[in-house]
Amino acid sequence: MPAPAISRSLAPPKDEIILPAELPAFQTQLLGWFAEAKRDLDWRRTRDAYRVWISEIMLQQTRVAAVLPYYQRFLARFPTLDALARARLDTVLRSWAGLGYYSRARNLHRAAKEIVDRHGGEFPRRIEEALALPGIGHYTAAAVLSIAYGEPHAVLDGNVVRVLARLGAIRGDLRRPKRWRELAAAANALLPPQAASAAGPPSSPGDWNQAMMELGATLCTPRGPQCAACPVARWCRAHALGIALRVPAPRPKPKPVRLALSAAVLLDPRGRTLLVRQESDHSTLFSSLWHFPAIQSARPAPEKLSRYLQSAFGITAALEVLPLARHTVTFRRILLAPFLVRVTKLPVPNPSAMEGVRTPRLAEIECLPISSATKKIAAASLAALPRRRQRASSSF
Ligand code: SF4
Questions:
Q1: Residue 16 CB coordination number (10 Å)
Q2: CATH of domain 257-395
Q3: Is CATH 1.10.287.70 the right assignment for the domain spanning 20-246?
Q4: Helix or strand or coil: residue 333?
Q5: Is 197 helix (H, G, I), strand (E, B) or coil?
C-alpha cells in the first residue's frame, strides 16, 4: 500500500489526526497488529466488569509486572464485587499492602459498597453513573465500559496521548485543558465502527482502546520509539519529520523532596509494640494504614519525637537510636529514623487523638495493613535488637 501523503505542517490538528479517507486502513492495520502482538495478560482473558475494573485501578501509576501477582491474589481473596463490598476495610488494605497509593483501595471498597447499594451489584453501564463512583475518573470509566460492555468511549491515558501526539506531530503542553479536550475528541474520532460496514473494520471499542494503549506501552515508548517495527508508521507525522523523540516534550520532573521520619518503636517486656492510625494520615506517607508513632521533619528529630510521645501518650522513657533506613515515594526521598523506646506497659492514648491503636508483637506487625515504610522501620529495629530480645518478641 502506498504511503499516504503527510502534511509537514506542525499546526496541531483539532480532532482529525488521521484523514477520514485513511481511517479504515489505519484501524485495520492497528487492530491486526494488536491481535498478533498483544501481551497475554490475566485481565485480557475476561470481559467481566469487576475484574476489568480491579485491573484498571491497580494499573494506575503501577507497572504491569508489579500488578500481576497482586491482581491474582486480590481476586482470589475477593472473587466477586459482592465479596469486596462485604469485606472489612482492613482486610482490603492488607491485600493491597505493598502496591502503594492506598486511596485506590479505600475508593475501590467504597465504590463496591455503592454499586451493591445503588446498582444491584452490577458495575453501571452508563458513563455518568460510573463517573459518580469514588475513585473513578474518565479514563477508568471509559476503559471499563468499553472493554466489559463494548460502549464506545475512547480512553485517554499517558500512552494514548503520546501516540496521538506523535501521529499528529502535536507539540506544546498536552496537559493544557483545551489541548487535552482536542486530544480526547481526536481519540474518539479514531474509534472504529462497531458493526461491519463498508466504512471500516468491525471491532469492539475495548479492543481498540487496548490496541492504542499497547502501542504506547510496547513500541511507541517515551524514550525509545521503535518506528521501524510500528504498524502505523506510515501515518505518523512525527516519524516522517524525524521528531518522534521530541514529541511530546518531556515534562519537567519535580525536584526531589527530602524529609526525615522519626518513628518510635515502643517495646514492652512481652515484645509487643504500639501501632496507631489517624484519619489525618490520608494525605501523608501512611495513607491511613497502621504505623509507629512518628513525626516528619527536615532531619531526624529525637527531641521533637520525645515531646510528641509525652504529649500524645504520656511517655517519658529514653529513646535508643536504631539504624537508619531509606524509603522513596515518587519524588519524596525519606530517611527513616527509628528509635527504640522500652516501656514496662504500652500506653493507652487519648482516643480523640487517634482513630485507633493496635498492640501486635513487633515481629508480627504484618498481620495488620501497614505500608512499606513501616515494614522497613520494623525490619531495621528487629535486626538491631539483641538476639535475646528478638526471641522474646517472636515467642509471645
Ligand atoms: S511511527 Fe514511531 S513515533 Fe510514530 S506511532 Fe509508531 S512508534 Fe510512535
A1: 13
A2: 3.90.79.10
A3: no
A4: strand
A5: strand
Given a contact cutoff of 8 angstroms between Cβ atoms, the answer to whether 179 and 173 are in contact is yes
The set of cell numbers assigned to 314 is 504520656
**H-helix segments, 219-295:** 237-241
Give distance in angstroms: CA of 229 to centre of ligand 1.
Answer: 9
Among the listed residues 180, 197, 364, the one whose alpha carbon sits nearest the alpha carbon of residue 271? 364
Residue nearest to atom 4 of ligand 1 (CA): 236
Q: Which amino acid is at 63?
A: R
Dihedral angle, C-alpha 158, 164, 167, 172, nearest 10 °: -80
Please confirm, yes or no, whether 56 is among the known catalytic residues: yes
Q: Which of 56, 151, 182, 214 is catalytic?
A: 56
Q: Return the pLDDT at 118.
A: 97
Domain extents in the chain: 20-246, 257-395
Q: Where are the alpha helices (DSSP H) in 97-204?
A: 103-119, 127-131, 138-149, 158-167, 177-190
pLDDT in tens, 247-275: 998 888 888 999 999 999 999 999 999 99
- The pTM score is 0.80
